[in-house]
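Translate sequence into structure tokens.
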Amino acid sequence: NNSRFFKQYPLWIRDVFLNPAWLGDHSWTFWQYANRGRVAGVKGPVDFNVFFGDTSQWGHFLQK
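Result follows.
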């Protein structure tokens, strides 16, 4: 199983229909939950993503 080689990398899941579920021991870091979002000042659709963690974990992630 080659998945052990990728545990050091963040996992970004795209699923615009269901909440992400991971059956292994490597949880997701980012989830793209929409690809047709709207943001004021942006022309056209945008992707919406969420980080799996709290503010402290986000700060730690950014320092890596």
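Note: The chain is about 15% helix and 25% strand.
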